[in-house]
Design brief:
mainly alpha
Length: 179
């Protein structure tokens, strides 16, 4: 989460709520966009002198606007230039599928339909991000940044589409009595 926040703050200074909104619009496939996780990361980044903040008053409300420091930018650049980390593909929902034989058919179908609904909502958000990319005028010096951000959104969209197809097939197989 630390590097996600640093990258977002390098692009633009933001409040904690702006960070949360941006994370929840496409980056939540990588990390949780909860205020608690963002606050914990910001606290760590502040302690390490990777971010700073400026207090402002807007409409009578105090706001902290966070920015990346030079130390934060250097740390981020070091991280982004390091080799990709090797992680196994983990899918916590798969544990539910593994033990779904203990559940009754009605609950299986209900839970899968609810999960499909959630996946379709996530797909719609990412699909809109991907489709809106053609309408955005990006300055030449920001094209690389934008292109790789778009690639991660495309990956997320395609990954969710795979999951939608997989769960729809599972639901069909359950309804038809195949499993």
């Amino acid at each position: 989460m630390d590097n996600i926040i640093l990258g977002l703050l390098i692009l633009e200074s933001r409040t904690i709520y702006q960070l949360r909104d941006r994370i929840n619009k496409g980056l939540n496939l990588m990390y949780s966009g909860s205020l608690g996780s963002i606050q914990a990361a910001l606290k760590k980044l502040l302690i390490n002198d990777y971010v700073t903040f400026e207090e402002t008053v807007e409409n009578g409300k105090y706001k902290k606007v966070y920015s990346a420091t030079e130390n934060g930018k250097q740390s981020f650049i070091k991280w982004v230039n390091a080799p990709l980390e090797k992680h196994s593909a983990k899918n916590p929902e798969l544990a539910k599928i593994y033990f779904m034989g203990f559940s009754d058919k009605q609950n299986r179908e209900k839970n899968i339909r609810e999960h499909l609904s959630y996946l379709k909502e996530q797909y719609a958000v990412l699909n809109e991000i991907c489709q809106s990319a053609d309408r955005i005028n990006i300055p030449q010096n920001k094209k690389d940044i934008f292109n790789y951000q778009l690639l991660s959104a495309l990956y997320g969209r395609d990954f969710i589409k795979f999951n939608i197809d997989w769960y729809e097939n599972l639901l069909r197989r359950i309804k038809e009595g195949e499993i």
